[in-house]
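hiii so um. not sure if this is the right channel but i have a protein structure encoded as C-alpha cells and i wanna go backwards to a sequence. like what aa goes where. can anyone help
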C-alpha cells in the first residue's frame, strides 16, 4: 500500500462539524481548500487509520492519526472524487472530497 503524504498540524483551531445528526462524531472537517483536506479528531480517535479511496473505490493511501490535526494532501493525485475514511475500533467516519486541478 502507498503511504499518504499527510502533514500533521499541531495548532488549535475551531472545527466545523462533519454532520448534524444525533450521533457522536469523533472527526470534524476543519477545511477543504485547493488540494488539502484538513480534519481534526477527538482523543478517542487518536491512533485511528486514515484510508483514501479514488472514484473507482480503489485504496490509494493509508496512514495513522498521530496528532489531533491532520491534512491529506492531494497535490500529486489525479483530479476526481475521493472518499476519506477515518477508522478506529470498528467505527468509521467517512467524508467526500472533490479534487480539481487548477
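sure thing!! here u go:
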Amino acid at each position: 500500500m502507498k503511504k499518504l503524504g499527510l502533514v500533521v498540524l499541531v495548532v488549535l483551531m475551531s472545527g466545523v462539524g462533519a454532520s448534524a445528526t444525533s450521533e457522536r462524531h469523533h472527526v470534524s472537517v476543519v477545511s477543504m481548500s485547493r488540494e488539502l483536506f484538513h480534519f481534526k479528531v477527538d482523543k478517542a480517535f487518536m491512533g485511528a487509520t486514515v484510508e483514501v479511496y479514488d472514484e473507482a473505490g480503489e485504496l490509494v493511501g493509508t496512514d495513522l492519526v498521530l496528532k489531533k490535526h491532520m491534512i491529506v494532501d492531494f497535490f500529486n493525485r489525479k483530479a476526481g472524487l475521493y472518499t476519506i475514511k477515518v477508522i478506529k475500533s470498528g467505527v468509521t467516519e467517512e467524508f467526500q472530497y472533490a479534487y480539481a486541478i487548477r
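oh and The chain has a mean pLDDT of 80.
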